[in-house]
Amino acid sequence: MRPKVTREFIDRLIASGRGSGTGDRYRPWLMPHKSASSTCSNISYVRMPMVQRHCYFLSRGERAVSHLVWWAGAQDVREQFPLWPWPHPSPLAEVDSAREWPRHPGMTDVAHAAGIPVYCYPGLSVDRILTIDLMVTFQREADAPTQLLGISCKPLDLVLSAQPSDRIMERLELDRRYCDVAGIEHRLVYPEQVPAALVRQLEWLAPLRPRAAIDQIVASYAYQVFLDRVRKTAFTVAASEAIDDASRGLDWSPVQTQFAAQLAMWRLDIDVDLQQPLSMASPLLPGGHACREELRNRLFGRTSC
Asked: What whole-number distance in Å separates Cα of residue 20 and Cα of residue 8?
């Protein structure tokens, strides 16, 4: 049973850190239970690559897009990110404290300027705290300033069939305007257009370990030796054979070898085309770098690999 929303309840959630933090310290504003969802939703409570915390997604589409964004090179992906109704520090201030950022006027002000209603919680004079599906931290180039990208994930058929006055279109416009006021880029992503095979393989290969642990593996001599060996044969012999041969003499367990191979494919240290179904009984197919660069350009604009 969901607790009754009161001003004190909202204040307690905010004081506990809900809707704030970055990386492993982030706590999404919405942390729903099954009873709080619609019959059409598909709530996930899962690990994602590069972070230790579990993430909350309200649909398969949100989870799929999050996997894509991480793979495309995001530094952080925060789901169910709150668009506070009252004036508050710019979301950019939390990821780039070296610069001065103007305060955000809040969603209530944004909605009023747009002529779009934001409804109050039942029995309260407090506007509902709306959320955007994903708030992504990224850099276009290695030395470029840190930026944010707000992503709204909505089904294509619902958007195409909606009238401008329908609530889904109003919510998309509020997401866009909130981001625009903050100087944050915004994208509308249709999950149905995300390549299903790519997402399945990203979910399978995703390195579910802390970023520091992954960095340590990548920087190790053994991993570099493994890469040098596997790159020479993985595109001409069965992938499983190439991986086994490349791991000989490295003092790795079968689990370590499997993790290193999956990490190398997820990171594209081995340039494998993840849009094609992977078979360890066949040679790998190249083309992953081109696919990822196209995705980066679509999401972030021009980036370096």
From this structure: 18
pLDDT in tens, 23-48: 999 999 988 765 444 444 578 899 99
10 Å Cβ neighbour count for 298? 12
Amino acid type, 190: Y
pLDDT in tens, 82-109: 999 999 999 999 999 889 999 999 999 9
CA dihedral 260, 261, 267, 269 (to 10 degrees): 100
Domains of the chain in sequence order: 7-193 (3.40.1350.10), 196-300 (no CATH)
Residue 127, classed as helix, strand or coil, is strand
Tell me which residue of 111, 109, 110, 91 sits closest to 101, measured CA to CA: 91
Q: In angstroms, what CA-CA distances link 248 with 45, 216, 225, 255? A: 37, 20, 10, 14
Rounded Cα–Cα distance for residues 151 and 153 (Å): 6
- What global pTM score does this model have? 0.92
Token digits of residue 300: 């972030």
